[in-house]
Amino acid sequence: MKVLGIGAHPDDLEILCAGTLARFAKEGSEVYMCHVCDGNKGSMEHTSEEIAEIRDKEAKESAKVIGATPLWAGISDGEVVVDIKSREKIIDVIRQADPDLIITHSPNDYHSDHVNTSKLVFEASYLANLKLWETEYDASTKLPYLYYMDNLAGIKFEPQEYVDITDTMDTKIEMMLKMQSQLGWLEEMHNCKAPDFIKTVAEFRGFQAAVKYAEGFVQHKMYPQGLTKRVLP
Predict the structure, then answer these.
(1) Residue 131 maps to a domain
(2) For 120, which of 86, 88, 89, 177 is 20 to 30 Å away at the CA?
(3) What is the distance in angstroms between the CA of the first residue and the CA of the last residue of the chain?
(4) b or e along 44-68 (b: 16 or more beta carbons within 10 Å of the residue's beta carbon)?
(5) What CATH number does the domain containing 108 carry?
(6) Is residue 20 part of a domain?
(7) Is 32 within a domain?
(8) Splitting the chain (233 residues) into consecutive groups of 10 residues, what average pLDDT does each group show?
(9) Does residue 215 form part of some domain?
(10) Contact between residue 136 and residue 40 where contact means Cβ atoms under 8 Å apart
(11) Domain count, the chain
(12) What are phi and psi of 124, to 5 degrees?
């Protein structure tokens, strides 16, 4: 399968679904990791230009851990809005990957960039398949399955499916540790140490799923996608 993870910022996929992406990669799928924003507001010490460059390098290093292809949608932090221009940027991301499956943010997440990314991915996942919607890239060849990943800390998120990430938990942590610029930021802004936070949530979802570590997901169920087949590992 071709799997596309779309997170609003560099580190969102690492926190919320990297264990599953690592499993897909380990099992032979072609994985793409897109950060919609460049991360240019995520620092207390660097300029916007500096932190955007740093986070781009970190995202590429994280993707490299599992052999994923990194993509960027070309939007600044805090500027993800639901409009035609942004929609076309996400259409082009999808067309570059031509995925069988997309994983992105839940529609009820805590950050406006996350919520609007979710909306844009929903809109673009169908439109990317339309040949007469002309952009820089050719139309995708299929309508992908769409899954929403957990919210930060699992607030108001009830998983419908779980993925056992016990064997890829260390890889998930390794990917997050590539985000060195964000480790201090997360501790200062959210009062959490990223590795501990990730393990706590994964252990809780694992308890729900009767495994050591897990990640939770909700499928966006819609016609004409087949709804009888499990596509998660």
Answers:
(1) yes
(2) 177
(3) 11
(4) eeeeeeebbebbbebbbebbebbeb
(5) 3.40.50.10320
(6) yes
(7) yes
(8) 97 97 98 96 86 94 98 95 97 98 96 97 96 96 96 93 98 95 74 87 98 97 80 95
(9) yes
(10) no
(11) 1
(12) -75, -25
